[in-house]
Amino acid sequence: MYLAQDEDTIAAISTPPGEGGIGIVRISGKDALNIAQTLFVGSRRQDLRSVPGYSLHHGLLLDPDSHSVLDECLVSVMRAPHSYTREDVIEVNCHGGRLSVRHVLEAVLRCGARLATAGEFTKRAFLNGRLDLAQAESVIDIIQAKTDAGLQLAVQQLHGKLSTRVELLRQTLQQLLALVEASIDFSDEDIELISHDRISSELQSALAAITELLAGAQEGKIVRDGLSIAIVGKPNVGKSSLLNVFLEEERAIVTPVPGTTRDTIEDYINLHGVPIRLIDTAGIRKTDDHVERLGVERSRRLIEQADMILCLFDTSVPWTEEDDAFLDMIRKKAKILVLNKIDLPAQVSVHDVLSHFSETVPVFQISISEQLGLDELKQEIVDEVLDMPLESVAVTNVRHKQALTQTQKSLTHAENSTSAGMSQEFIALDLRDALQHLGEITGETTTEDILDRIFSTFCIGK
User: Where does Mg(2+) bind (predicted)?
Assistant: First the structure.
């Protein structure tokens, strides 16, 4: 792989916008030390160009034109190749006000640095061999992690949990391809360097390894990206009350009057490590009220978009046509049936509700007012979406899953060719395709377009 590399010295603000104790301006590139020295007057008159790496220096930062003091600061010096980008890196630690950080960055840019693009520091870390592409992607996952479990998975990716397994698989397939190609080269001399049986055995082992990686991909995606769950039902069945219970706060207004919720209410919760976007929808019913009707229509759209549905029923009142109406909307969705108000005399049984479904559907009986069955319901939600322990998950990124799926297809083609006794040229072709797709995960095989798409999701200072 060869990718053209920009040799500009780049700079950006690396701390979030707003007021804070410290603001950091990061500089990376061959002129980083010279630019910093132009602006910096050390308390001990030290020259940043001659100080050792991993050192911190106190002083003043001066405007390059007027020589007025911009701020008092601490300057971190990290020398290539022992830095995040493997280039010379300077981090100016100044006061964290909006103006002070911006003025420091502007001064750095006037001295010859270029404003970094989104994710450019991490892109340089990848291009300089500091990180592979899967590890580079984990950086933004760490920044954007919504739960402790998501953060833990992202840190494991940064430390090479997936990359190590992919690299071992690549080495195995490269060795297999080398033997297959050697057999092709010596085919005229009637020398078989590797038999079809051994090729088949190696391919089956590789396919088993990929299957194991893909097994936790759905769980990884859920922990990384989260899950949207819509709470649906006819009016006054307890949807807003259930939302408040999950959020542990009075987020939604609750009254005995049907149709109180006229718009959707959304919020995030952390459920056993799974980030969940909960959506309280307007009660599904026919209504002449224009505002309520708009809320019902919006609820219908959100039901279509949700990953899972919590279908709420009030067991203290008889089954009605309104219950039938919204059941038709959710038949094809992943769902959990929730029977509320079991503390009151029952007018509807579990059997009555399940009789409207031909498939097996999980059902839970709860009482929101009496706090009955709620912990079991929360656990069921997690059990429904996570089929394996998170410790076994290695794939969290859709791009990685797609590359592994393509690798799996190529190896399956190779295995079919081997079983059919076809020429080893066909097997070699499929092995090359498999290696191409595997290389996309770690960046051994990639393009500028792919890199631009990945790093555009980063913040500018990272």
Answer: 240, 261
**Structural tokens at position 140:** 């933004």
SS3 78: strand
Binding site, annotated residues for K(+):
236, 255, 257, 260
State pLDDT tens for residues 268-322.
Answer: 888 877 888 888 876 555 555 555 566 666 767 777 778 888 888 888 988 887 7
Q: Which residues are annotated as a binding site for GTP?
A: 236-241, 255-261, 280-283
Q: For residues 462 and 355, what is the distance between their CA atoms, to the nearest angstrom?
A: 55
Region of 442 (left: φ > 0; alpha: ψ -120 to 50; beta: rest) is alpha
Between CA 167 and CA 48 the distance in angstroms is: 40
Q: Which residues are annotated as a binding site?
A: 26, 91, 130, 236-241, 255-261, 280-283, 462
What does residue 148 show for φ and ψ, rounded to 5 degrees?
-60, -40
**Binding site members for (6S)-5-formyl-5,6,7,8-tetrahydrofolate:** 26, 91, 130, 462
**DSSP 3-state assignment of 75?**
strand
Residue pLDDT, tens place only, 247-264: 876 654 444 444 444 456
Q: Which residue ranges make up the annotated binding site for Mg(2+)?
A: 240, 261
Place of tokens 């959990």: 336
152, 154, 159, 164 alpha-carbon torsion, rounded to 10°: 110
User: Which residues share a beta bridge with 312?
Assistant: 338
Rg from Cα positions in the chain: 29
Cβ atoms of 363 and 354 closer than 8 Å:
yes
Peptide bond just before 64 cis, omega within 30 deg: no
Give CA–CA dist 196/391, Å, rounded: 36
Residue 79, Cβ neighbours under 10 Å: how many?
16
Own/partner pairs for 286-290, CB < 8 Å, 24+ apart?
286/322, 286/325, 287/259, 289/259
Is the pTM higher than 0.85? The answer reads no
Strands 265-271 and 227-232 turn out to be unpaired
